[in-house]
Amino acid sequence: MAATADPLARVLDHIHEDEVVELALALANIDSPTGREGEVAEFLYAWLEREGFEPRRVGLLPDRPNIAARVRGAGGGPSLLLNSHMDTTIAAEETLTTPNAAAPEHHTGWRDGKYLVGNGVVNNKGLMATWMVACKALKQAGIRLRGDVLMTMVVGEIGVEPVDEFQPPEYLAKEAGARYLVNRGYIADYGIVAEGTDFALCWVEAGKAFFKVSVEGVDPPRYTPYVPTPGAPEDSLNAIVRATRVIEAIEAWGAAYERRHTYECEGGTVVPKVSIGAIRSGVPYKITKAPSICHLYVDVRINPDQDLLSVQRELEAAVAGVRVPVTVEPFAFRRGYEGKNVDGVVQAVERAHARVIGGTPGRPVVPVTSMWRDSNVFNEVGMPTVVYGPGASVGGGNFAIEVEALVQAARVYAAIAMELCGVHG
């Protein structure tokens, strides 16, 4: 039988559902919450080595390395970086945010009819598996591209920002992941971050500024029998009670803030949200003391035009009207970016999408472009990068993805590489 003449058809002949499913579930069943990616990193290294990709460990920390491999082209074409992250969002002990944090869907993956289920499948190891299979299929089909393809599997995409006693190396965020890889020279002409967009295409993401807002009560703390009868919260001796007024002020500011700073561009829309993500005050084994201090930890998303100090001043102004002593201190800042000079990669994705799936990829729902993703790291250093992939974001409570969507993703990523890098010979 004669070989298939169409190079893409030859590649697609080597992409099989069972292989995509097997790899996605193998990765998902290695639990890897942020900071504990070592085991899955070694699995990835072994898979790449076995398939002849000459992988490298590129790590800030020896127990959680990034894994990278370069598929060398023949020359004369643009290079493409493919990126996904190893870490997952929920550790089993995080019951103060997620009461069922130890549930199977947060730490394992399985097939349920036409779906694969699991946090790690959706975010982000199932998507990683699709372009790994795509790169293997290019190799098996004997396709040599003109430009290089960089395969990058990174740690620390999900924010674990150092604050208070929670310090590195146990608590270390994005410095260990894509940013460390970029600083070691792993860059390309274009990048694609494979994350869930329901096959929509975008090239803008929000930044973020994290603040510790400290509300003071009366020092020394008062023993319960000496606490006055409750009145107006701002007149209380208890910092927790006083903090309720500060929370009200932050919530009111946040509603107006997102309206003022909504950012629209061709690559998508950023609606920067404000959320109080943690509160610390008192100790549960000594609730006989009305606490003298209450800390609120505030997640403020920012658009690509905003800077840390302007956001801090807005927040300080918002709480200044509350008649209690309050201090605002930033503890994390990461810029958001709109990708520039992205036409080459956008057109390649659009052509490949049309050929494999049909139609044109639209723009994703607003929450997708209003979060922080590793595309910001690549766009920051001037590498035009887009976000594109199957499935919905896990951030909205989604823990399942259709098997067919994963297989389609493998096909379209292979087509994108061929469209962008060019085929030699």
How many structural domains are formed by the residues? 2
Radius of gyration: 24 Å
* Structural class by helix and strand composition: alpha+beta
How many β-strands, per DSSP? 20
Give the CATH H-level superfamily of the largest domain: Zn peptidases
Give the distance, in angstroms, between the N- and C-terminal Cα atoms: 22 Å
CATH topology of the largest domain: Aminopeptidase
How much helical structure, as a percent, in the residues? 25-40%
Q: Largest sheet at a glance?
A: 7 strands, mixed
Going by CATH, the architecture of the largest domain would be 3-Layer(aba) Sandwich
* Parts with pLDDT < 50 across at least 5 consecutive residues: none
Numbering strands along the chain, what is their spatial order in the largest sheet?
Answer: 1-2-6-3-7-19-8
Q: Looking at the structure, what is the overall shape? A: elongated
Structural features, described:
- The protein has 425 residues and is α+β, with helices and mostly antiparallel strands.
- It folds into two domains: 7-205 and 337-421, Zn peptidases (Aminopeptidase, 3-Layer(aba) Sandwich); 207-334, 2-Layer Sandwich (Alpha-Beta Plaits), CATH 3.30.70.360.
- The chain contains eleven helices and 20 strands.
- It has a seven-stranded mixed sheet. Strands 14-16-10-17 form a four-stranded antiparallel sheet, with helices on one face. Strands 4-5-20 form a three-stranded antiparallel sheet.
- A hairpin with a 2-residue loop joins strand 4 (110-112) and strand 5 (115-117).
- The mean pLDDT is 96.
